[in-house]
Amino acid sequence: MMLATRVIRRPVVTEKAAFASGTFNRHTFEIDSDARKGDVKAAVEELYGVRVLSVAIQNRKGQQRRSRFGYWKTPAVKRAVVKIHPDDRIELF
Questions:
Q1: Predicted TM-score of the model (pTM)
Q2: CA separation for the pair 48, 90 (Å, rounded)
Q3: Distance CA 5, CA 78 (A)
Q4: Domains of the chain
Q5: pLDDT tens for residues 24-51?
Q6: Of 39, 40, 54, 67, which has the most beta carbons under 10 Å away?
């Protein structure tokens, strides 16, 4: 079992994630690459004090970018989409 503060790195703040959190009560977090679904569920329940219904994990590979100065690779990211009980809320902002 990992520490809750090590499992969840930061919330994902995009237009799509904000729409899902407001409409469907699904919150998206960037997580540690070694974290599993059970670790994410325990960490969200501990840090935010809410009931978690389900966790979906996304492994997003890094992409190659280019500009006139050359090529570079964006880092790979592991995300978790967490569905919260309808009676609970997470106020991030």
A1: 0.87
A2: 7
A3: 15
A4: 4-84 (3.30.70.330)
A5: 999 999 999 999 999 999 999 999 999 9
A6: 40
- Round to whole Å and give the CA distance between 79 and 20: 14
Phi/psi at 36 (5° precision): -110, 175
What's the confidence (pLDDT) of residue 29?
A: 97
Specify the 3-state DSSP secondary structure of 8. strand
The DSSP code sequence of the chain is ---HHHHEEEE---HHHHHHHHHT-EEEEEE-TT--HHHHHHHHHHHH---EEEEEEEEEPP-EEEETTEEEEPPPEEEEEEEEPTT------
